[in-house]
Write a structure and sequence with these properties.
The chain has 162 residues and is α+β, with helices and mostly antiparallel strands. The chain has two domains: 68 residues, Helix Hairpins, CATH 1.10.287.180; 78 residues, Roll (Chitinase A, domain 3), CATH 3.10.50.30. It is 40% helix and 20% strand. The chain is built from three helices and five strands; from the N terminus they run ααβββαββ. A five-stranded mixed β-sheet has the order 3-2-1-5-4. Strand 4 and strand 5 form a beta hairpin. Helix 1 runs antiparallel to helix 2. The longest helix is centred in the N-terminal third of the chain and has 31 residues. The protein is elongated, with a radius of gyration of 22 Å. The mean pLDDT is 90.
């Protein structure tokens, strides 16, 4: 998924959340009110709780859209690892090789090799060049990798798959 596809997904989620917040939840709250005593009305309390959750999610999604919309692909460096880069790594301890793509947090997917740019691995790789070593704190301890090569989002011709 690219940046534009992610923005489209978030915009779709925002639209659905707004509909739920403005139409669906108020209708369900009104139906629950008609059942009588609100102090013991589980449906009413569940809908009020859902309303709070949806309100918070709307705020979060709006903020993510704003911050992702501010990313200008032309500002992503072409001479070092950055957002969207596909990075070939060698584990300096065991020689194992791994390929990852740096993506937005919403896109991270371990099975696909998509690593959040905000994760410890992502933060450790940003700004690196071929041949650079990087020490990264992982749940399993500190790992040391060498950047074997990388392909920036400017150079990518085909979708990434690990």
């Amino acid at each position: 998924m690219g940046l534009q596809e992610l923005l489209n997904t978030l915009r779709g989620e925002l639209s659905a959340l707004k509909k739920e917040f403005r139409i669906d939840i108020p209708q369900k709250i009104e139906q629950a009110r008609l059942l009588g005593d609100l102090s013991e009305n589980a449906d009413y309390h569940a809908m009020k709780e859902r309303q709070g959750f949806v309100r918070a999610r709307i705020i979060f999604v709006k903020q993510r859209i704003a911050s992702l919309s501010a990313i200008d692909p032309r500002s992503v460096p072409q001479d070092r690892v950055g957002f969207g880069s596909i990075v070939h790594l060698r584990d300096t301890e065991n020689g194992g090789e791994r390929v990852v793509k740096l993506v937005a947090p919403e896109e991270s997917n371990g099975e696909k090799g998509w690593v959040s740019i905000a994760s410890p691995i992502g933060r450790g790789l940003v700004g690196r060049r071929e041949g650079d070593g990087v020490r990264i704190q992982t749940p399993g301890g500190v790992k040391t990798f060498e950047v074997k090569k990388f392909i920036t989002l400017h150079e990518q011709k085909e979708p990434f798959s690990a």
